[in-house]
Every structure is written in structure tokens, then in C-alpha cells.
Amino acid sequence: MFKPFTGLLAEFKSPASVLAAAKALTKAGYTTVDAHSPFPIHGMDKALKLKDSPLGWVVVIVGTLAFFGAFAFQYWANGVAYPVNVSGKPLLSYPSYICITYGFMTIVASITAATTMFALNGLPQLYYSLFKVGRFAKFSTDGFFISVSETDSKFDKEKTAQLLTELQGEHVVYVED
Amino acid sequence: MTQVVQDIDDTINRPALVTGDATFQAVTDAVVAPLEAPTPRWWMIALTGTTSLLLLLLSLITYLLWAGTGVWGVNSPVGWGFDIINFVYWVGIAHAGTLISAILFTTRQKWRTSISRFAEAMTIFAVLCALIYPGIHVGRMWLAYYMFPVPNQMALWPNFKSPLLWDLFAVSSYFTLSLVFWYIGMMPDLATLRDRALTKTRKIVFGILAMGWRGSARHWLHYEKAYLILAAMGTPLVVSVSSVVSMDFAASQIPGWHATIFPPYFVAGAVFSGFAMVVVMMAGARKVFKLENLVTMHHLETMNKIVLGMGMVMTYIYSMEFFMAWYSADPYEMFAFINRAAGPYAAFYWVMLFGNAVLPQLFWMKRFRRSIVWMVIIGIMANVGMWCERFVIVTTIHRDFLPSSWGLFIPTWVDIGTFLGTWGLFLTLFLLFLRFLPMINITEVKSIMPQASPHEGDKHV
Q: By the number of CB atoms within 10 A of the CB, which of A23, A151, B120, B353 ranks highest?
């Protein structure tokens, strides 16, 4: 879960320049490029060639299980374990189970969506090497950053730094974990 | 998708959503400023007042537990009094938050960004107030856990076919989803607070709450997906919660409590009162915290239009209720409605009609929609009206079929005190929220600003 990072960090002026840099780096063959921005930048996932998030599938599967689980449990509790006869209606009177089935599914699915998001992102991770860079704190206000990890097969401390500068990156620094 | 909305906006030429010094830094500064300023005096005074009311709530719940439900004005035939009135009332207030954050998100309404956090906070606090009532109105509240399917030695299970249990699940699913949505939406902003923190305590607290958020593109990918899914699940919930709550009344046999119109009726009423409440609170907050550039008159006007729209739906439903009573040709049903308008509780009926159907009509005129004074007056009256509506619905059963079973519900001081106490809880939580958390979603507001688009400058419509 814990993701260490050693590599280069460069700062960019605007969403447009950071997006252009991300595209150029990916085109040059880098695969560990990551962007850091105060808000999601439109088109960044495509620029970095990121795969679509599997989160939706997890929520659908867990939510479906919760849906049928809640329905089955209600029938079992009021129809099998302790049969409750309400005005002579059938024990499997499914319309009366819908509200709870739906409510329970929502509870489970919303918690699943949140926890899956944390798991896929490897959060909480309170320490990250980039936090040591003073300027990086700007990412949550108006800073746009690109980081390239040294695990990248194309990574070369000098050449990559130069490429980042050519792409209008500023304050290029090498960060060690 | 942002780009599509952006392009549409360019062609329609809508008013700017962020005015004044519209840089990213300025937005952060404007929202965070109240949290970094020294504690204002008015805040301390207000908190003293609201926590006193909160203490009143705790004392009266203790008194209720000690003495029994007899301290309330409930009786036969009005077996549910203030507890269900206020339960429905608070659930209604909550609705604006989910509507703004879920429905307006899935329909890509950009103006929602600067009011969503505020409204979501209201949702959570209002649902908390609402959840107190089912807990304490059960009579023997130490057995309230029977509402949950807890395995027990008697092999008894809750009756899942009862609308009262549907209520419990509807409201608790609403609470869970709203809380998760609120927190997930706040994480990037908590990171902002962490990165700006001036004191060590703040750094640690916000550091833990932000979970090490680093705005990574890979994180945003999963984050946005999770947010979209939560919004999608919240969308039907806006409609379902009040619908389920209304089943408590709709599924009965008593005149006035036997109507298929109740679910949409309750949903419209909930959205109406919720939006009116957001307008009132926001009109005050933007002034006090100098957020006029983020919550512009355009935002308030748009909300007032929704208040007007929902007011019209309410007006239609009030007329339709009378029509259905007449059309049913059921003398008891007809009497129930005439009794609402001319019986012992007629005053509540007419206040309801004035606040919900008559006064909002002023919003047809732009002058009233854009006047802070008027929108506050109409907003407050809408909430008074909506409270009266719940009172009217709940007390309808005071005169049912036989005059020998008629009676009156008169609230006791404990009833009234408990209601005031829930206001104490709501306002206390709200004051704490205003002081310690960003009341506007900084991240989302930035993302709708023109310079947030990476295609800035080039028009490709």
C-alpha cells in the first residue's frame, strides 16, 4: 500500500502547460509520470494514458450482493424464522421489502465506494517524499506539478530534468524518499 | 465533460460564477480567511446561546426518560405529536443538501459548486436532529435497539413490513451517504488547510483528516469516479427518503391519512423548505464572512427560482388534496379537509397556505428574487409554513369517524422545549462547522473557473 517516491518534481504555471508537459513526457516514453493539481484537470487521464478506474465495478458487485442479501434476510426473518402474518398477505410480500432493500444497498454501496477509493489510492498515507519540498504545498492552492519517478525505465537524472525544463517546467528538483 | 459544459456556457454567455479577484489563490484565501482569523466575539456569544439550547435538549430527553411519555402532549387520538412533526420537518430541511450535491451534480449545474458544501453540512446536521426523534419517541427508549435486526434469545425480528422500519432505514441510509459524500468532497480542501496550517495542532488534525492527499492525477481518477457514483446513488435518495417518510401517513386508513399523493407531496415540501433554509443561512453567511464574490446574487436568485417552483408544486398539491377529498365522495374524507381549514387548528392551515403558496409568488418578480431582505423574509416564512404543514397533517386525525373519539393535541412545555433544543443542536453544529471547516468547496469552485480549463483561449465549439 505504501508508495515511496524518489524522482524529479517540476512546477508549471497553468493547467494548459502541465497538460502539455504530461502529453509530451508520455509521448517520449515515460510511464511513471504523475501530475499534482488543486483540482482534476480535464484530459489528464488520457494524456497520461491511465486506465479507467475499476471502482465502479467493485461498487456494482458489492451493491448487488447487499441488495439481494437484504431482500433475502427480510424474507427469512419475517417469513421463515418467525413468520409474521400481516392481514393475511403472503409471507413473501416483496413490495413491502423494497424500501429496506434499497436503503441497505445504499448504505453498503456508499461505504464501499469510499473505502475502495482509499484502497485504490493507497490512502491514508500521511508521509510522502514530495511533502518535503516546500513549494509542493502550493499544489492544493494554485500550483501545478509533474513528478517522474526514478523507477521509470527512461529515467535519467540529467536528461529528464532537462526535458522538464524544456517543457517550461520551473523549480525542477530531485527528491529522495 | 467539463469541457462540454464550458463550451455551452461560452455560447449562452451566462453570468460569471466567481466575481471580483478571480484567481485560484484569491478563492482559497476568501474561503480559508474566516478559519484563520481570531475567534470573533459574535461567534462566542452565538455559541453560548445555542449550546444552552442544546443543554435544554439533553435535560428534556433525560426528563422524558425519567418520567415517561406522559410529559408530552400526545394522547389518543393524536398519538404522534411534536415528535413526528419535527422528525418530518428536520428530514425536509435536510433535502436541499442532497439535491444540490447529487441532482445538480449529475445534471452538471456549475452554480452548485459554491453552495454545495454549506447545504451538505445542513443536511447532515438536520438529519441528526431528525434521527433523535425516532429514538426517543418509542416510549421505552432503552429498547430502541429493537428497531435493528439484532439476534436475540427470543428469536424475534423487527417487522420489516412496517413503514416505521422503512423510515429508519431510509433516514439512516440518507445519513450514511450524506456523511460519506461530505467527507470525500472535503478531502482535497482539508489538504489545502493542512498545507496552509499556521499552528502545529491544525497541521496534525488536518493532516490526519486529509489522509495524505497529494492531488495526484492517478488519485483524481478514482476520486472522481467515487464522487460520481456517490452522486448517482444520492439522486434517487433525494426522492426516496421523503417518500418513505410519507408512507407513515399514506399507508393508514384514517381520513386525511390515506392518500397516494403523499410521496411527491412530501418530496416537494422537503425541497421547498430545504432550499428556503439554505437561502436564509447563506444570505447571512456570505455577508458575515465576506463571500459575496463566491456566492453571488446569481446563486441566490437561482435558488429563489427553485423555491418558487417548489412553492408552485405545493400550491398545486394543496388544491389537489381538496379536489380529491371532494371527488372521493367520502363524507369523512371531506370533513377531514374542511376541518383542517375551519377546525380548531385552522390558524396553522392558513399560515401554511400563506407561507408556502402565497408569499413565494413574489419571486415571480426579479426585484424580490434579488432582494436579500425579501428572500430572508420569504425563506423564514416558508419554513414556518412548512412546519405548520406538518402540524396540520399530523393533527388531522384529531377528529376521525366518531365524535366520541375526538380529541385535541396541545403541546406541553416539554414538547416545545425539545423542539427548541433540536435547534440548539443544529445551530451549535453549524457554528462549529463555520469556524473549523471550509464552508465552500474550494476545489470545485476552482474547477469551474474559466482558467481551470486546459484549453483556455482556444475556442473549439
A: B120
Do B294 and B18 meet the contact criterion of CB atoms below 8 Å apart? yes
Secondary structure (3-state) at B175: helix
Runs of H (alpha helix) within B137-216:
163-196, 200-210
What one-character DSSP code corresponds to residue B367? H
* DSSP H or E stretch at residue A162: helix A157-166
pTM of the model: 0.89
Does A166 fall in a domain? yes
Instruction: Name chain A contacts of B183, Cβ cutoff 8 Å.
Output: 114
pLDDT in tens, B77-106: 888 888 889 999 999 888 888 888 888 888
Output B61 or A154, whichever has higher pLDDT: B61
Q: How do residues A9-64 score in pLDDT, each as one tens digit?
A: 888 888 888 888 888 888 888 888 888 998 888 888 888 888 888 999 999 999 99
pLDDT of B1 over the 50 cut: no
Give pLDDT tens digits for B331-346.
Answer: 998 998 999 999 899 9
- Over residues B215-231, the pLDDT tens digits come to 888 889 999 999 999 99
Say how many C-beta atoms besides its own lie within 10 A of residue A76's C-beta: 12
CA distance B116 to B98: 9
Domain assignment present for residue A2? The answer is no
Residue of A124, A51, A65 lying closest to B225 (CA atoms): A51
**Residues of B with Cβ-Cβ distance to A36 under 8 angstroms:** 214-217
Does any domain span residue A1?
no
Q: Are residues A64 and A13 in the same domain?
A: no
Task: Looking at the complex, report in whole angstroms how far the Cα of residue B53 sits from the nearest Cα belonging to chain A.
Answer: 31
Q: Do A141 and B195 touch (CB under 8 A)?
A: yes
* In the block, residue with C-alpha cell 426517543: B136
How many C-beta neighbours within 10 Å does residue B396 have?
21
Nearest CA in chain A to B165: A100
Contact A154, A29 (CB under 8 A): yes
Strand partners of residue A35: A146
B177:A103 CB<8 A: no
Q: Do B169 and A103 touch (CB under 8 A)?
A: yes
- The whole-angstrom separation of Cα B365 and Cα B301 is 11
Range of the domain at B110: 2-452
In a domain? residue A73: yes
Instruction: Give the SS3 label for residue A10.
Output: strand
* B3 pLDDT above the threshold of 60: no
Please give the residue range of the domain that contains residue A71. Answer: 55-121
> Which chain A residues are within 8 Å of B184, Cβ to Cβ?
114, 117
- Region B129-137: what's the mean pLDDT? 88
Cis (ω within 30 of 0) for the bond into A124? yes
Q: How many domains does chain A have?
A: 2
Domain membership flag for residue B211: yes
The answer to whether the beta carbons of residues A104 and B170 sit under 8 Å apart is no
